[in-house]
Design a protein that fits this description.
The chain has helices at residues 19-22, 55-70, 83-93, 115-124, 141-151, 166-176, 194-201, 213-217, 221-229, 233-243, 250-257, 261-273, and strands at residues 8-11, 30-35, 44-48, 74-77, 98-101, 126-129, 155-158, 180-183, 205-206, 277-280, 283-286. α2 runs parallel beside α3 (83-93) and α5 (141-151) crosses α6. It is 41% helix and 16% strand. The model has no long low-confidence stretch (mean pLDDT 91).
Length: 287
């Protein structure tokens, strides 16, 4: 039995609703959440793959998640068996943050064998779903929830997956959403390597060195410096306004910049997508 915890409903018009997710063409109208809601404003990277993973795939997912979480970025996955579970565990073992997107209600542990992992995520991470509490697993729920996994994330990493698989669906959705896709090269003798190897052949960036992963993903301090260097003069102006305040609302930032609210909101949203600022309730902060 899993522990009963409070469930928070966040509608699409709620200021806590993630800006990146709202930006996709079919965002969920609501999110049901269990756990640490501050993760909704964190920079996120998805790590996904097959349930029937190899020992190498399980190791790679865990180590990638450790590197991502260690850079202060939240690891997003679907808490399925295999690669997803290894990614969540890697992030938690590194003392980092992880977010699980369910194809069931947030109070339904699926698969049941992941009850221990469910408790760990609910305790120090976040579980979200667009489905009502108590909703059981339906086959069509899981492909649909994949758009949320990629939609929450600035990048998606596929560790192992067949050509026709849920992880390939997630990669396709990420590309449609304008997000970066990365893949771990696999053994050509393994069926679950065909999907990731095809992603790389089609242009996805291969992950070749775990030590360089934060820089590759743009989530290291070096990556942040590069992003800052590319800011336009208007973006730089807003960055400085947010930077030198203990927390400022978008409306107050617009007033300080002497700009219209709609114009300011567009610039601030773009900077949030770039991972340079974050929202915490009604306030904006530098990450």
């Amino acid at each position: 039995m899993i522990k009963t915890r409070p469930v928070v409903r966040i509608g699409i018009d709620d200021e806590r609703y993630p800006a990146l997710l709202r930006d996709i063409h079919d965002p969920p109208a609501q999110l049901f959440c269990v756990g640490d809601l501050s993760l909704l404003s964190m920079q996120c990277v998805a790590v996904v793959g097959t349930r029937r993973c190899s020992p190498y795939g399980r190791w790679a997912a865990g180590e990638i998640a450790r590197a991502v979480a260690g850079s202060g970025t939240c690891v997003v996955s679907g808490m399925a068996s295999g690669i997803d579970s290894a990614a969540h565990k890697g992030a938690l073992d590194a003392g980092g943050k992880t977010l699980a997107v369910f194809g069931t209600g947030v109070d339904v542990c699926f698969p049941a064998s992941n009850s221990g992992l469910y408790e760990r995520i609910a305790e120090s991470g976040l579980i979200v779903s667009e489905y009502e509490p108590g909703e059981g697993p339906m086959a069509w729920h899981f492909p649909a929830r994949n758009r949320i996994i990629s939609g929450l994330s600035r990048a998606t990493i596929v560790v192992e997956g067949a050509i026709k698989s849920g992880s390939m669906i997630t990669a396709s959705l990420a590309l449609e959403q304008g997000r970066d896709v990365f893949a771990v090269p696999g053994n050509i003798n393994q069926p679950n390597s065909r999907g990731v190897n095809k992603l790389i052949a089609d242009g996805a960036s291969p992950i070749m060195d775990l030590g360089e992963l934060p820089q590759l993903l743009g989530i290291s301090k070096d990556g942040e410096k590069k992003a800052l260097a590319k800011l336009s003069s208007e973006e730089r102006r807003y960055y400085e306004i947010v930077k030198f305040s203990p927390g400022i609302s978008p409306e107050a930032a617009a007033l300080e910049a002497d700009d219209g609210a709609a114009y300011a909101a567009a610039i601030l949203t773009l900077m949030e997508i770039k991972g340079l600022i974050r929202r915490d309730g009604s306030a904006l902060f530098i990450r």
